[in-house]
């Protein structure tokens, strides 16, 4: 027991020392000459050198990367035991040699701290890192990310690994950036007794007393009153509720992920303050996830993610969300290499690479360099086939690298300053996606179709109008940067967001809120005040009742709207004016209202966000807000103007014709176009006069 306490104390002391040192380091590395910024685009790859057969094959890999025009390689991830095969015994001989060879080839390296998965030796010696199910079963680490990252021994050893690696390569000329724990946010929650006690400690810091906890958890219901802290249990991840407790459990696990990222960021700032943190984060991972948008400033230099798009709309939204409120471009630390399917579609990766440029991306790094012969992804085809021959994918990314080399001289990466923001919150995602066993029929009407469906519907008209958007946590950002803030179905709108929206409107901003918003408070309990909670005076109305109506009809600025809008809320204006009414309901039932509050406007939509409804509403507001839509494009084609030139991307498998003004030249195709641009399936071009 004494030895265990000593290890924990040592871990805490090391973490505190690292954090203290980090506080003294400048927060920004933008002044560093190698900081990647405007005028720099990167094509690279993800590389697992420990899978390769030997140095000869690795040397061949590096030369092929160089010949393809790649600039940066991400490696180190998923390989803790390759660096530390047993506790405290480090072996960097092969990685040292690879770093030197990368430098000799002119390639930069993102060194990923491989904190997950933890090695088998760590699980064996420190069973506190094992996952325990809600039924009390201890699980063997049979797949990736089966680590309890809240365990003190895990954190102590992870910090030591990060400290050792960053010190070793801090001055290496190939080092470009540091990444943390591949796909942070993925994994499983754990139910050990130690986890329960950590959860209790988290609750004590949050609420202060059992009485306050009882109030927050509505424990007067169904004989669930807590008399002591020790009566607290971790709510089941698979349900049922109660909702308040489930939300706090998910917040607790989010904070555990953030704490680990903060520890690693402190190590980076101490040892490599001149190198940015570019980590492959996964805040929306289904099993766990975490609140990135409220915390990213603590551990992020660039928004970075794994980019595996299905459709343009959701791909654009997710990439925008990962950029958060930052002005810096997006890094696709993992990038689709052909898919869908095992071998992919020629031209698809190139199209998505240019689509990424529209969204503000700076780098595409295909997953993965070589096809995997074994393990969990053994059927995944990389740029190098299983027999060590280059596939057509390598040629495609060589083409992307060549085109990026041209575009980086012409205003790329495309740095954005959007004037429109869409509100997003991890808390709300949890509140509107309760465990299946915990959501009863009295709740479904208010959270259906759910936040993400509403968010995508609110985003779609802007996306198709080629308007830049930010996806942010409105309680943690300076909203004065924006002209329009959209709140689509934020069922849980916390106190900080409520206050910030009030300030935004009072100071001259315009906000649009859709139905199903601001129903519950920070504890996931229904407001005991008129709805929308805390904002009835801002919107100049109250709304309590709702009805299912199916097809609804209204007219917005001369545009007739007829759509399956689902349930509608009964709006009771006080100071608000009716902007549009439902034509097929008795009386003049308000569909949209607008209220003057302070210097700004607060608009309330009586239904869930729907593209057919939101499109004419936005277009009515563009001129008064000084927001100009982007280039007009047919469905499936997206475009942005960059330094007087226009980049067009056809995301469809069909040829598309785009009307242009007069004669223009294609920078990428070398063709001359008159009045009409003809894009091949998955085709792209940059037009200039």
Automatic annotation (TrEMBL):
It is an enzyme of class 3 (hydrolase). Residues 419-626 form the Beta-galactosidase trimerisation domain. Pfam families: Glyco_hydro_42, Glyco_hydro_42M. The keyword Zinc applies. Its EC number is 3.2.1.23. Residues 1-26 form the signal peptide. It catalyses: Hydrolysis of terminal non-reducing beta-D-galactose residues in beta-D-galactosides. Keywords: Glycosidase, Hydrolase, Metal-binding, Signal, Zinc. GO terms for biological process: carbohydrate metabolic process. GO terms for cellular component: beta-galactosidase complex. Residues 47-406 form the Glycoside hydrolase family 42 N-terminal domain. GO terms for molecular function: beta-galactosidase activity; metal ion binding. Belongs to the glycosyl hydrolase 42 family. This is beta-galactosidase. It comes from Massilia eburnea. The lineage of its organism: Bacteria, Pseudomonadati, Pseudomonadota, Betaproteobacteria, Burkholderiales.
């Amino acid at each position: 027991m004494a030895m265990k306490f000593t290890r924990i104390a040592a871990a805490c002391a090391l973490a505190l020392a690292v954090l203290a040192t980090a506080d003294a380091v400048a927060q920004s590395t933008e002044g560093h000459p190698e900081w990647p910024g405007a005028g720099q685009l990167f094509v690279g790859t993800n590389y697992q050198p420990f899978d390769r057969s030997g140095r000869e094959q690795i040397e061949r890999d590096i030369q092929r990367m160089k010949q393809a025009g790649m600039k940066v390689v991400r490696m180190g991830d998923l390989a803790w035991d390759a660096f530390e095969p047993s506790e405290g015994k480090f072996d960097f001989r092969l990685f040292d040699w690879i770093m030197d060879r990368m430098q000799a080839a002119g390639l930069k390296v993102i060194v990923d701290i491989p904190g997950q998965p933890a090695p088998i030796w760590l699980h064996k010696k420190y069973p506190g890192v094992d996952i325990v199910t809600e039924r009390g079963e201890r699980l063997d680490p049979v797949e990736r990310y089966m680590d309890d990252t809240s365990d003190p021994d895990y954190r102590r050893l992870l910090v030591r690994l990060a400290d050792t690696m960053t010190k070793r390569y801090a001055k290496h000329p190939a080092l470009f950036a540091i990444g943390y724990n591949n796909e942070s946010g993925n994994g499983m929650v754990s139910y050990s007794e130690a986890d329960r006690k950590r959860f209790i400690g988290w609750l004590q810091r949050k609420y202060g007393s059992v009485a306050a906890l009882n109030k927050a958890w509505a424990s007067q219901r169904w004989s669930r009153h807590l008399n002591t802290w020790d009566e607290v249990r971790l709510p089941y991840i698979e349900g049922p509720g109660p909702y308040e407790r489930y939300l706090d459990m998910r917040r607790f696990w989010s904070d555990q992920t953030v704490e680990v990222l903060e520890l690693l960021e402190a190590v980076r700032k101490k040892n490599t303050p001149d190198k940015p943190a570019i980590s492959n984060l996964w805040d929306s991972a289904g099993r766990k996830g975490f609140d990135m948008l409220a915390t990213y400033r603590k551990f992020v230099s660039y928004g970075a993610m794994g980019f595996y798009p299905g459709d343009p709309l959701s791909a654009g939204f997710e990439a925008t969300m990962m950029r958060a409120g930052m002005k810096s471009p997006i890094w696709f630390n993992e990038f689709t290499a052909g898919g869908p399917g095992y071998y992919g579609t020629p031209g698809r990766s190139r199209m998505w690479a240019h689509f990424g440029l529209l969204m503000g991306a700076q780098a595409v790094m295909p997953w993965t360099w070589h096809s995997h012969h074994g393990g969990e992804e053994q059927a995944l085809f990389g740029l190098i086939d299983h027999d060590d021959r280059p596939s057509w994918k390598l040629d495609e990314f060589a083409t992307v690298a060549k085109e990026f080399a041209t575009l980086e001289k012409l205003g790329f990466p495309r740095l954005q300053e959007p004037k429109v923001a869409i509100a997003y919150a991890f808390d709300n995602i949890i509140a509107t996606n309760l465990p299946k066993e915990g959501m009863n029929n009295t709740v479904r009407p208010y959270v259906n179709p759910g936040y993400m469906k509403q968010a995508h519907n609110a985003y779609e008209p802007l996306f198709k109008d080629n308007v830049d958007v930010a996806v942010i946590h409105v309680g943690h950002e300076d909203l004065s940067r924006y002209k329009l803030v959209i709140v689509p179905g934020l069922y849980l709108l916390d106190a900080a967001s409520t206050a910030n929206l009030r300030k935004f409107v009072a100071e001259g901003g315009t906000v649009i809120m859709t139905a199903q918003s601001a129903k519950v408070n920070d504890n996931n309990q229904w407001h005991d005040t008129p709805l929308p909670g805390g904002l009835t005076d801002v919107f100049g109305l109250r709304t309590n009742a709702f009805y299912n109506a199916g097809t609804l009809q209204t007219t917005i600025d001369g545009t007739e709207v007829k759509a399956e809008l689902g349930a509608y809320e009964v709006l009771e204006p006080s100071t608000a004016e009716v902007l549009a009414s439902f034509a097929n309901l008795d009386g003049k039932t308000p569909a949209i209202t607008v209220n003057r509050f302070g210097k700004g406007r607060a608009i309330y939509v009586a239904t869930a966000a729907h593209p057919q409804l939101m499109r004419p509403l936005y277009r009515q507001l563009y001129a008064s807000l000084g927001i100009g839509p982007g280039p007009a494009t047919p469905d499936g084609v997206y475009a942005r103007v960059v330094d007087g030139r226009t980049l067009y991307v056809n995301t469809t498998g069909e040829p598309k014709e785009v009307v242009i003004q007069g004669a223009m030249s294609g920078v990428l195709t070398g063709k001359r176009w008159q009045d009409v641009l003809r894009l091949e399936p998955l085709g792209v071009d940059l037009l200039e006069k």
